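May I ask you to comment on the folded chain given beneath this request?
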Amino acid sequence: MTLFPADFLWGGALAANQAEGAYLADGKGLSTSDLQPQGIFGPIVKRAAGDSSLKDQAIDFYHRYPEDIALFAEMGFGCLRVSIAWSRIFPQGDEHAPNEAGLAFYDRLFGEMAKHGIQPLVTLSHYEMPYALTQRHGGWGSRRTIAFFEHYARTVFARYRDQVKYWLTFNEINMALHAPFTGVGLPPDSGKQAIYQAIHHQLVASARAVKACHELVPDARIGNMLLGDIVYPLSCRPDDQLASQKQNRGWLFFGDVQARGAYPAYMRRFFRDEGIALDIRASDHEDLLATVDFISFSYYMSGCASAAPALAAQAGGVLGMVPNPHLPSSDWGWQIDPQGLRYLLNLLYDRYQKPLFIVENGLGARDEVTADGRVHDPYRIQYLNDHLLQVAEALDDGVPLLGYTSWGPIDLVSASKAEMSKRYGFIHVDRDDQGQGSLERRRKDSFYWYRDVIRSRGQTLKPAG
């Protein structure tokens, strides 16, 4: 098997709202994530003094990051994807002056990573924004939020210009179609007109952040981030082919705008057919010309699409995929398709001709701690092994790939339902869904497996099957 490139960035990925904890510490304001204690698809809950949420402490990364980064370094990480909690920097979102205590935390975090030779890959907005912006300005439904985000982006670019050379704008930006409050700060029952207008504002803001990054940190690279929502046609019937094309375009359009600098023609028909009339100004077209340097994405599963009404009605999960009869599923019903990752890598490179970065990929599973304090997770090793074999195939196909950061290198609170029991990490954290546990860190079997994969540049990967 071909060795992974010597400069390939191996690592892991986590999010502030799922790992940091330190709820409202050091001047932090309420974020939209703080109002979703049951996860991104759960109800929006008003917070009151003295109440609590699992995410309020999460895994206490805010205080324990030196220990965790040392463990990541032991595995050989060259990169760690993290996010900045926007409400730590601008607690209400619309202030002029930033919160110095929030900025100082990320100074310490990036400094600790530098001690271990780990490069930060930083997401500006990962499934959260200051809650006050949704109350005062209507979230991303307001054009004013573009300027607030640009001010935030310019503030952190200027502050961390010497520490951070890889940036992302919005996490899984296409998730706004499935979870409007999480994605764009709109009520869950918002209609298509409101959601796509908010998405437009977010796309303009992303482009302005790209331009600002190029101005303020000229030696940095900034990318977008897509949820890799790939579907195959359920059959070779032409109607199924068109159904899968339409469903894939629903999320690829975000990449088309951010990588090509304009709305694709097929979206103009979609808007016309759906009766959507967006407020797009001449200056917006100019802003969108600032395109990303690379395409990053998450990949967990694939699905199918069908034009047959009875089969389409079977589409399940938040992404509306028809189950693939040829694939197994995880404990949470996510279908496992390693070859889909190779397919997606080739599709994205063929489409955009820009470097790619896999910034999330992993298996959520129920882990058990044995009597001797070990965690044996061969299912996770198998999942990651088989996916990385397909990444190697894509490299042989000629796809330029910057790196791979597995999702959840350490157990954290899951995004979908805010659970600790859905574990992704190479490192076990002693905490349960009720918030009980010591928070002790413990290396799983996969910890040593991933360390060896990194050291060998992929040579320890086992043939599939």
User: Anything to note?
Assistant: The domain at 9-227+249-304+332-455 is CATH 3.20.20.80 (TIM Barrel).
